[in-house]
């Protein structure tokens, strides 16, 4: 009848009209992440605020790339004549390969595109490198940093330099426009945790004699 109160909306329609607080919060955080990452991409191009520092940032980029680390570790493994050194290098090689696989899997699942201000002029890329989440450089930096600090005897100044290198490599990813901030933060967390996996699965002459027989 006329003037009767309108029937209430079904509960599912109310949910569509009233997005959850969590959804709003996540959308807001994503927007802040994109905005801040673009503002911090000061070396994303030659015409950027710090464009003159871009060549230096690209050198730092190469220092955290997987190929130099893999080749250097493999070469050291082949040249080593110490069982203790071979054990450390073999586990570093395992850690680097695990890092590559895990980053590739997560990138393939998430498929987050790289920032729009990124220039695709990266050093030696593979198919999943068109995706941004997580930062493989940040993951590798955290993993290698923990590994080196744990298994190499270094003076305090050198230990500080290793930590600074990991931080600079990670920061450079945002400065170059390669990644958003959350890509780098998650990458650091993933690399930190991957080291724990390597420690748990540590390869030794007792647990993996066939691998040691190769060298």
UniProtKB/TrEMBL annotation:
This protein's UniProt keywords: Endoplasmic reticulum, Hydrolase, Lipid metabolism, Membrane, Nucleus, Transmembrane, Transmembrane helix
Q: Where in the cell is it found?
A: Endoplasmic reticulum membrane; Nucleus inner membrane
Give the transmembrane region(s).
89-110, 152-174, 194-214
**Catalysed reaction(s)?**
(2E)-geranyl diphosphate + H2O = (2E)-geranyl phosphate + phosphate + H(+); presqualene phosphate + H2O = presqualene alcohol + phosphate; presqualene diphosphate + H2O = presqualene phosphate + phosphate + H(+); (2E,6E)-farnesyl phosphate + H2O = (2E,6E)-farnesol + phosphate
What is a single molecular function from GO for this protein?
Answer: sphingosine-1-phosphate phosphatase activity
The main place the protein resides is endoplasmic reticulum
Q: Which domain of life is it from?
A: Eukaryota
The GO biological-process annotations, alphabetized, read as: lipid metabolic process
Question: Does the record's keyword annotation contain Protein transport?
Answer: no
Pfam families reported in the protein's UniProt record: PAP2 (PF01569)
Q: Which SUPFAM superfamilies match?
A: Acid phosphatase/Vanadium-dependent haloperoxidase (SSF48317)
Indicate the segments forming the Phosphatidic acid phosphatase type 2/haloperoxidase domain, all copies: 88-199
The record describes its membrane topology as: Multi-pass membrane protein
Question: Its Enzyme Commission number?
Answer: 3.6.1.68
* GO cellular component terms, A-Z: endoplasmic reticulum membrane; nuclear inner membrane
Against InterPro entries, the record matches this protein to: PAP2/HPO (IPR000326), PAP2/HPO_sf (IPR036938)
Q: Please give the family membership noted in the entry.
A: Belongs to the PA-phosphatase related phosphoesterase family.
Q: Which PANTHER family match?
A: POLYISOPRENOID DIPHOSPHATE_PHOSPHATE PHOSPHOHYDROLASE PLPP6, SPHINGOSINE-1-PHOSPHATE PHOSPHOHYDROLASE
Q: What is this protein called?
A: Polyisoprenoid diphosphate/phosphate phosphohydrolase PLPP6
Q: Which organism is it from?
A: Sinosuthora webbiana
